[in-house]
Amino acid sequence: MTRTAEPKQTRNEAASGADAGPADASTEGIVNSGRRGFLKNTGLATMAAMVGASIPFHRNMPVGLVPAAFAQDGDALAGKDGLTLLNDRPVNAETPPELLDDAVTPISRHFIRNNGVPPENVDADAWTLTIDGFVDNPLELSIADLRDQFEVVTMQLTLECGGNGRGFFDPPASGNQWTYGAVACSEWTGVRLKDVLEKAGVQSNVVYTAHYGADGHLSGDPDKLPISRGVPIAKALTDNVLIAFEMNGEALHPMNGAPLRLVVAGWPASTAQKWLTRIELRDQVHDGPKMTGTSYRVPAYPVAPGQEVPEEDFVIIERMPVKSLITFPANGTDIGMETDVRGHAWSGDRAISKLDISIDFGTTWQTVELDDPVNDGAWQNWRTKVTLPQAGYYEIWARATDSEGDMQPFAIAWNPKGYLNNSMHRVGVRAS
């Protein structure tokens, strides 16, 4: 007997019913820790960004279809290597510490922090950036204009999510449960934001920038922005804030803001707007999405775990705190009686002056070899060798001290949003 195949359900039908219009950025994703699950449930715009092109026949895609571009390994994070997916709507993924061992973070291992749905049309040739607000000469610049009219510079710059380390707060804080891997230091090429703003003519009443991108709100409402943050004008006019169009000598990765983004070294990466389309100069502190309320803010005073804090008592996070990361050996590994130990350290707008490690639970400390930063805003690489006295379990602890004398603590005080966790990094190893 011949069986008639049942008609397949398309992504469009699943989202909106059989008579629905085109699938779009409002298609809901389902949080799923498995990457294949992510692909099956992700929104159209996110999938298009990852395959690097629009999907003309998206209406016909069966529910759960994994694009052939990913079929070899089922990896949802195309062009990324070994990242841990924390959320698929929006896409957020971190890098295990041992995969951050490179002095310069490869594109494939740079973390992803999205707030909305990435744009589908990321044609670099057609992209424009508007500079307006309280300026003498509003500008509209293509990427070619940026290259032609301003000095192109390349810098290693550290980006870190303000919530990096949130997963270790007790009681838990809401939001993506980042552990250690929402940090990276890649090599960025672009033009200084300072140079572009000076050409536009910064008026005397300007106090803050406002950044806008082409990503869409998760609701699909075109009138809503997922995020629009800014920085004080004094920070915007420093030499290491870039409008970037290349990453490690290549075009930006779609999930890292292609074709144009800001890179604001040393401050929360949320200020480094991806898919950048506009910078407005304002005569007040910017009040866009994720600038007000408790977003990227901490209480102005110490609070007890679980304590309610009035909104007016939260202050905006500016520079990120002193921090370090052990990238070798990996946590939980078996090693010999002698091992290399290495990693990175950074501290907002400051340099690191000293990096110490301990193998005896903080009783004694050993100062290690520490490189100078390649440029302002780059993390600093460090290394040493450790000889262990006998077989057994050990913990290697790292603590950095910055140029102003601030040192990493063993643990930090709780805050309601789980920001700025700069407690010492510890890895456990077994020596035999």
Distance between the termini: 66 Å
- The number of strands is 23
| SSE order | HHHEEEEEHEEHEHEEEEEEEEEEEEEEE
Proportion in helices: under 10%
Question: What's the main sheet like?
Answer: 5 strands, antiparallel
The proportion of strand residues reads 25-35%
Low-confidence stretches: 1-41, 71-75
Indicate the overall shape: globular
Briefly, what is this?
This protein has 432 residues and is mainly beta. The chain has helices spanning 11-16, 35-41, 44-51, 143-149, 193-200, 233-236; strands at 84-88, 91-94, 112-113, 128-133, 139-142, 152-160, 183-192, 208-213, 241-247, 250-251, 261-264, 276-282, 297-299, 314-316, 323-328, 333-335, 338-346, 352-358, 366-367, 369-370, 380-387, 392-402, 425-431.
What do you see in this structure?
The structure is a single chain. The protein is mainly beta and 432 residues long. The chain has 6 helices and 23 strands. Strands 6, 7, 9, 10 and 11 form a 5-stranded antiparallel β-sheet that branches. Strands 16-23-22-18-19 form a 5-stranded mixed β-sheet, with no helix packed on it. The radius of gyration is 23 Å and the shape is globular. Residues 1-41 and 71-75 have low confidence and may be disordered.
Question: What key attributes describe this structure?
Answer:
single chain; 432 residues; mainly beta; five-stranded antiparallel β-sheet; five-stranded mixed β-sheet; disordered N terminus
Task: Describe the protein's topology.
Blueprint: H1 11-16, H2 35-41, H3 44-51, E1 84-88, E2 91-94, E3 112-113, E4 128-133, E5 139-142, H4 143-149, E6 152-160, E7 183-192, H5 193-200, E8 208-213, H6 233-236, E9 241-247, E10 250-251, E11 261-264, E12 276-282, E13 297-299, E14 314-316, E15 323-328, E16 333-335, E17 338-346, E18 352-358, E19 366-367, E20 369-370, E21 380-387, E22 392-402, E23 425-431
Parallel strand pairs: 4-12, 16-23
Antiparallel strand pairs: 1-2, 2-3, 4-5, 6-7, 7-9, 8-12, 9-10, 9-11, 13-14, 15-17, 17-21, 18-19, 18-22, 20-21, 22-23
